[in-house]
Design goal:
By secondary structure, this protein is of the alpha/beta class. Helix content is 31%, strand content 28%. It has a domain of 129 residues: 3-Layer(aba) Sandwich (Rossmann fold). The strands form 2 sheets. The chain has a 7-stranded mixed sheet with strand order 3-2-1-4-5-9-8, with helices on both faces. Strands 6-7 form a two-stranded antiparallel sheet. The protein binds S-adenosylmethionine. This is Methyltransferase domain-containing protein.
């Protein structure tokens, strides 16, 4: 990160990665975070004992805005230089995944070079799998790129998409199949 770039952790859970970014040197006031479950954000403050000191910006919101537009989220539109997705995109089916990609594009600063980075589960074949928490969508490298091409078409924003395949954890392979991988991605606004 450079200068006063802002970073958003989308689907931040307890905000453990938010605290890691700060420990790694990112000024806390430049870190933004969104989480569906308000209770997770509260648990994070309780766990890290920083409710009164942490200057990062958390909101509880549904990035899909299924119950209508979220004014707080809209307040961040166009302001985020880096969006980080930790194990997030596989939580949505293919259609909702596209909506998330489109919503992230709105949040992203319109300067070339602003990026969406992260990691999600993937597979050799694009498919849905059933996990204890519900259905997950495993993108293949090709379907991941295709989804971003659709998002680019809908938003009229051009992206360079880089996806690297890395080994998934043993537990994930045991649960979902030997071909399950981790997709590490870098989606950069051209
Ligand atoms: C698999 S967890 C990953 C959490 C964290 N990023 C990590 O790497 O450990 C996905 C997180 O996204 C949140 N989430 C799921 N759907 C969401 C939505 N529509 N809007 C915002 N957050 C959502 C979940 O509540 C959960 O905390």
């Amino acid at each position: 990160m450079q200068g006063d770039q802002s970073i958003l952790d989308l689907g931040c859970a307890l905000g453990q990665d938010v605290r890691q970014m700060i420990a790694d040197g990112v000024p806390d006031h430049l870190v933004y975070a969104v989480e569906l479950e308000a209770g997770f954000i509260e648990l994070g403050y309780d766990l890290f004992l920083d409710r009164d000191t942490l200057k990062s910006h958390f909101i509880s919101a549904d990035v899909l805005e299924k119950s209508g537009p979220c004014a707080k989220l809209a307040g961040w539109d166009g302001k985020i230089d880096i969006i980080y997705n930790g194990r997030f995109l596989h939580c949505f089916g293919r259609d909702d995944g596209l909506l998330v990609a489109i919503r992230m594009t709105k949040l992203l600063n319109n300067r070339p070079g602003s990026v969406i980075v992260g990691e999600c589960l993937g597979g050799k074949l694009d498919r849905e799998v059933v996990a204890p928490v519900g259905k997950l969508h495993l993108y293949s490298v090709e379907s991941f790129k295709e989804m971003w091409a659709q998002a680019a078409e809908k938003t009229k924003v051009e992206f360079k998409v880089d996806v690297q395949v890395q080994p998934a954890g043993q537990a994930q392979m045991a649960h979902f199949g030997e071909d399950v991988v981790s997709l590490v991605f870098w989606v950069e606004r051209s």
